[in-house]
Design goal:
Elements: E1 25-27, E2 30-32, E3 38-42, H1 49-62, E4 66-68, H2 86-99, E5 103-106, H3 113-119, E6 122-125, H4 133-139, E7 146-149, H5 156-168, E8 174-178, H6 194-203, E9 208-210, H7 212-216, H8 219-232, E10 236-240, H9 258-274
């Protein structure tokens, strides 16, 4: 039988034994963890207000409730586009407010925490920072939901223990996100571990998202993996969408067009209904 490590005085805070129901995270009238599937969509990076507005308008019309966009981008090459920084945060906040969509962006450095907290509704911890325990401790002291992505090669226990750092600090608004792990397979960006979704739902009360865009890195695989994620029990999906993926400054090859996103939403609806979830 799989067990989480215990803490002094009782079960781990992430453990399902502490709460039978899935913990709900509520943001501006939107819920992650409830009957309605949480759909988060937007470009990998905030490139301009015009592009973000166009993307937000189209994904909102298709049923997405949350808007994503990176202001600070963790890139493998130091010469790749690194994001617009504070200006990107301001654009994201303005567009989110105009479209009545809660916004989510990645926090890379604790030095930027004050700005990110000011301009966004949900803070994302990327895969590369899952083991940044100093950052996780600081996120435990804020009153903002945190999406914690699984590390590039993290075990499920390591992922849950990273979430424990945030919970132990007093912030119980933690959402887990499976985004694929590194394997020997070269044809996809990562290997999407959907067994982790089902297992984490057994072990923990925290809601779980799946990011099929980063998990595969291949546009044509995003929709089938989104369907599989919902069937596996995910509480929501995070999808990259760009009006002109061929011109995107970051991750264009895995970004859906607005038309492709519309098709995805139609495709996942019957799957969601089959597992007792709804899209709208």
């Amino acid at each position: 039988m799989i067990k989480l490590a215990s803490r002094e005085g009782g079960e781990m805070l992430v453990a399902r034994k502490n709460r039978e129901e899935v913990s709900l995270t509520k943001v501006k009238g939107c819920i992650i963890g409830g009957e309605q599937l949480a759909v988060i969509a937007g470009p990998c990076a905030v490139e301009s207000e015009e592009i973000l507005k166009e993307t937000a308008f189209k994904v909102r019309g298709c049923g997405a409730a949350f808007l994503r966009g990176g202001a600070y981008k963790p890139r493998t090459s130091p010469y790749s586009f690194q994001g617009l920084g504070e200006e990107g945060l301001k654009i994201l906040a303005r567009v989110g407010e105009d479209m009545n969509m809660p916004v989510i962006t990645e926090l890379m450095d604790s030095e930027d925490m004050e700005l990110v907290v000011e301009y966004t509704d949900i803070i994302q911890v990327g895969a590369r920072n899952m083991h940044n325990f100093a950052l996780l401790r600081k996120l435990g002291k804020i009153d903002k939901p945190v999406v914690l992505k699984r590390g590039l090669a993290a075990t499920i226990e390591e992922w849950l223990l990273a979430a424990e750092y945030i919970l132990a600090g007093g912030n119980n608004q933690v959402i887990l996100c499976e985004r694929g792990i590194r394997s020997a397979e070269p044809w996809t960006r990562n290997t999407l571990d959907l067994s982790a979704v089902a297992l984490v739902k057994e072990l923990s009360h925290l809601p779980v998202l799946v990011d099929p865009s980063h998990a595969t890195g291949v546009r044509s695989l995003v929709t089938p993996m989104a369907k599989a994620a919902i069937a596996a029990g995910a509480d929501g999906i995070m999808v990259e969408v760009h009006p002109h993926p061929e011109k995107a400054l970051s991750d264009g090859e895995q970004s859906l067009t607005p038309k492709g996103f519309s098709q995805l939403m139609r495709t996942i609806e019957p799957v969601a209904r089959a597992v007792g979830r709804r899209i709208r």
